[in-house]
Amino acid sequence: MTTQQLPGIRSRSRLRVDWRGLALVAGSVVAAAGFAWPFVQSAVPGEAQAAVPYLAIALVPAAVAALLLALDRQFASAKAVALLGVLGAIGAATRVLGDTVGGVEPVFVVLILAGRALGARFGFLLGLVVMTVSAIITGGIGPWLPFQLFACAWVAAGAGLLPGIRSRIGELAMLAAYGAVASWLVGALLNLSFWPFALASGSSISYTADAGALHNLTAFALYSLATSTLTWDTVRAITTVVGIALVGRPVLAALRRAKL
Description:
Number of domains: 1
Order of helices and strands: HHHHHHHHHH
Number of helices: 10
Radius of gyration: 21 Å
CATH architecture: Orthogonal Bundle
CATH class: Mainly Alpha
Helix content: over 70%
CATH topology: Arp2/3 complex 21 kDa subunit ARPC3
Shape: globular
Structural class: mainly alpha
């Protein structure tokens, strides 16, 4: 009896689980829980509430390590490694240069265009590499770094997941709009990573451990608007939109040729 005559053999051989893709999703879910703990702590039993912040802070770097181990086979070829190295160096350099002027961060242009041209998984890993290298260069290594890693990795991966558009102008417009929204969202996420510890309790924009999710969400929204969304994050959004409009077309073309 041949393989084709055995029921279910051929169908099972075609069923391949993308474990690396599942690992990326699972790691991102864990990291998202690390960001969102202030809104769910009040729902945790009282005797465990004090441990929630420490658990959340520990989850994010653990998720980074697990994803690096799970996704390293993505770069089995010398060409892929070279692309990651070159783009990682460029992204780190643009981030370091951008730190000299508040909010002017052209690194988002690199992440979005690379994620769009080379795919979500490549973009995710590129975000991790760029933030790691730039943190080493600037000495910005601390408990905030894993949160920055995931925020930038999500930006690049999200660009790779956007729908296909045949029109080049339409594609650039979509990426520019995405870059603006991502700039504001990343600012909010990074604010969320330290907001519970940034202010003394009692003010209208401070974190309250025993309050409900709606109260803390409102307080956080006001805090984020007052500290970065209307200033720093808006400058980042404008920088990203202008950068994509100026260099998006030739950079996308070059990256897509390099991918072939």
